[in-house]
Structures are given as C-alpha cells and as structure tokens.
Amino acid sequence: MKLLGSDTSPYTRKARLLLLEKGLPHAYVVAPPREPGSPVPLHNPLARVPTLLLDDGTVVYDSPVICEYLDTLNDHPVLIPRGDAVVRMRVRRWEALADGIMDSAVVIRLESLRPPEKQDPPTLALHGSAIARALALAERQLGSRTWCEGDALTLADLALVSALLYLDLRQPERDWRGQHPGLAAWARPVLQRPSVRSTIVP
Ligand SMILES: N[C@@H](CCC(=O)N[C@@H](CS)C(=O)NCC(=O)O)C(=O)O
After folding, report:
1. Ligand 1: which of 8, 9, 199 to mutate, most ligand atoms within 8 Å of CB?
2. N or C: at which end does the chain have fewer Cβ atoms within 10 angstroms?
C-alpha cells in the first residue's frame, strides 16, 4: 500500500505513526495536494492528505478511517482497543481532541497567510481559544500518566503527539511546553520513539 501525504501535515503524521508502530509494509509518497501534477486529486475527490492507496486500487480517506483500517491489519500492537467499548470510545475521543487541535491550527495557519488587513480576528480568536482549552483538557486528563489511555501506547498518544508537533511547527509562540508542563512531561518519551523521530524533517 501507498500513503500519499505531506511532511507538514499533522493528519499525515498520525497515519504514518500507525504504519511505523505496527511495522506495516508501505511506501510513503510526499504529494502535497496543491502541487501541479499531484496525484492526490486523482484518487481523493477532496484532494486532501493523507490518502491511502491499497494494492487492489481501493482508496482510503480521511485520517480517522485510515487509522481504523490500518489498525485492523495486525495485532502488534493493537492501537485502537477492540474489547471494551468505553475504552475504545476514550481512545477515539483523544483522537478527536487531537484532530480538533489540528483543524483549528490549520484554520489559523490559512488565515495567517492572508494579508494582515484581510485576516479575521474573531476567527483567529475562536480557534486560538479552542486550542488553548483542548491543551488544558489534555493536560488535566493526562495527569501524571505515561499513556493517554490504559497502560500502553494507543492511537490516542500518536494523535496527540502529531497535534503537538504541528503546534511546534506553526505556533511555536504558543509555547505549549512552558504553558503545560504536564503535557511536556508526557511528550518527552513519546517524542523519543523511533517512529516519531523518523517523521521529523530537520
Ligand atoms: N479530516 C482530514 C483532514 C485532512 C486535511 O485537511 N489535510 C490537509 C493537509 S494538513 C490537506 O490536505 N489540505 C488540502 C491542501 O493542502 O490543499 C483528515 O483527518 O484526514
């Protein structure tokens, strides 16, 4: 299978981390959707990354669907718990929280690319405070835990670290480590995982 993505896309990173943590054979193809000649719009009508192409021609999008599918391919490890519906919901809810941070950060990024006089301060404020609340909740929920849920790595951890790395890239001034020492403590070992390190472009 082939993952079309871009190195700066946090949703792409989340899917890549699943592929890497589960040791799934794949090709990662850097294919920003807006670049002339990008294959993404040919496969995904939404022209977004990540887009997963299976060997039989099936196209999979978007990142929650990709992650759910990938997790079914093997059990080592299981990243979306299968037995307990509540635990599963909690992991998916972490993913939703992380994806929401990404969504708001992308809106702020797109807004910031507009000329200053065309930027919409209420939009920036709305999404900025959504991110602030989400980070505060993540820190409270984590407490001093090693993992977002349970006693092992799950999709929740991979989604959250993807969101935080996107904030490092696009909103370094937010200083989530300084504002949320609990999040920083949780993130330190996660950021050292070979999977995570291999997705960071110097
Ligand atoms: N909800 C989608 C969001 C994907 C998304 O918006 N990706 C961005 C990149 S971060 C994208 O491809 N935008 C279109 C573009 O850059 O032209 C998912 O989870 O996969």
Report:
1. 9
2. C
CA of 103 to the centre of ligand 1 (A): 9
End-to-end CA distance of the chain: 26
- Residue 189's identity, in one-letter code, is P
Distance CA 25, CA 28 (A): 10
**How many A from CA of 182 to the centre of ligand 1?**
29
Distance 125 CA to ligand 1 centre (A): 21
DSSP annotation string for 31-78: --TTSTT-SHHHH-TT--S-EEE-TTS-EE-SHHHHHHHHHTS--TT-
pLDDT in tens, 101-121: 999 999 999 999 999 999 999
Q: What is the pLDDT of residue 202?
A: 82
